[in-house]
Amino acid sequence: MTDSAAAAVPIDTRPQWFGHPRQLARLFTTEAMERFGYYGMRALLTLYLADHFLFSDTTTTSLYGGFTALVYLTPLVGGLLADRYLGSKRSVKFGAIVMACGYLILCFGGDAAKPFATIDGQRYEVTVDKSTATKQQFVTDAGQKLSIKGREDGSVDLLRPDGSVARSVAKGGFVPGGDRSAFYTMLMLIGLSAVTVGNGFFKPNISTMVGSLYGPTDQRRDAGFTIFYMGINLGSLFSQLLCPLLAVGMGSWQGLGWWAGFGLAAIGMGISWALIQFAGPKLAGVGDPPVQSGGDKSIAIYIAALVAIPVIWFLFTNLMNAPPPVPGQGIMGYILGLPILGKVLFGTFLFSIIGIPIWSFRVGTRAEFEMMVAAIVLIIFNVVFWTLFEQAGSSLTLFADRNTNLSVFGLFSISAGQTQFFNAFFIVMLAPMFSALWTWLARRGMEPSIPIKFGIALIGVGAGFLFLVWGTKFAGADFKVGIWWLAGLYLIHSMAELCISPVGLSMITKLSIARIVGMMMGVWFLSISCAQYVAGVVAQVASVETVGGQVTNLKVSLETYAGVFETIGIISATIGLVLLALSGLIRKWMHGVN
User: Fold this and answer.
1) Rounded distance, CA 280 to CA 296, Å?
2) Does residue 292 fall inside a structural domain?
3) What is the pTM of this model?
4) Could you list the residue range(s) of the whole structural domain that residue 554 is in?
5) Model confidence over 427-437: pLDDT tens digits?
6) If you write DSSP's letter for every residue of 533-583 in order, what string do you get?
7) Considering the domain boundaries, does residue 3 fall inside one?
8) Cβ(44)–Cβ(258) below 8 Å
């Protein structure tokens, strides 16, 4: 290197933290605590909806999918408002406050819904004996306490204490339900809406603040983001253990209640806010608002954001009350029959993946057109991956609750919500190994191309489900599999995630025409948002009959989950193989982008 070249590299004279600007430590901790709150809440959400509010599996997974879809959609608006008006720092602080308020609102769930069943048009109260491993449900009929047993054909038997059948109810004649407070249901949806809005302001802008620490030629940028993103997994790792522990307990300890788990998430979010609010000069010049003409518009934006909370509440309500799609109407009929949120997501996504290639064909060169087509193709495959990967928070959590023996070596048992920590744990353990592996292969000219990594990821997520299906063959007499089969699924899924997640955003920036990089980044996040929504739809397919939040037949439950997981596992692996077969053509369209 010449003296002039060396002089051209700026020397960072700011205080350092492991070779990086010292502000990175504060932003790392801020992100870790925010993710602590979010993933802690998410570990509880599905079980909270199913066990406390006694929503059916269909309603639970639909609401969960809609919530996570909006969590990925709102950052597009939050990032735009920060860039033009608020600045990243104020956006992050406002988002943190709104999210913390959302978690606090979730603490107020009222009394648990009271289960009942309508049998051949007559209503019966239901009791659940939670002192037993199976949490048996009972109805009282003519003075007799009869246990409820679902059958494979959809009918229900009511059994006397000696096990004999007192009454059989044909399929459709037994309708479970729950008396839940309309006020507390509304309050829960307002809490989720607040979290959604706050996340839109926080999520994109904390990353922008990290990027602003490095100059355009600073080669430490990628390493800085790697350190920063470790905060995501460290925060989620601990919260997915601690929040369910406080909420539902572990082993023989029953926990303090749902409020404690959501309350801990709120505390984590409050710490995240305080780290930015009281940073003082430590974050001076980082994430400041842009120079504006026409005065400060922050108050108007804050008010509009609060007004958006009831709008999102309406979307959630519409989602919960929407009738199921009518089969046989085709893709357009299916989209038109979706709730408002589904229409917006799918309509926008279809318009994007069709319209953008047409536009690039008209205004770009042939090479630019082909690169854009390659990006769109990979975005479509990305939807498939995240649709299946995100079963973790819905169908896989319910499977853990119902058909998994949660004992760890017979020493203690964890809760179903805590099983989600496996993913974060494996990511923290494996990310450095995968990073070293890609570097080692790149030096030898052997690193897989982006399409091949995507294909491996799709095969991997399918293989994880098939591994769990294999485990169901070894279920015990209680129709439960060992926890290590579920841990094995998360191990395989984590390795698959490391093949697709780190390269996606980089791929978009490299393949997009310069004029629409921002738009393509939006389409990337839109694809993940659509995947979250579809994940809820897939989880609905795995729905099983529940009474009082508990399944009526564990054998039917196990077979239902195994059947759905086998189907999506085979489909995912097949799609992954198709992508591997197309990888040569897609790589040609990428014109040297790696």
Assistant:
1) 21
2) no
3) 0.86
4) 339-594
5) 888 888 887 88
6) HHHHHHHHHT---EETTEES-HHHHHHHHHHHHHHHHHHHHHHHHHHHHHH
7) no
8) yes
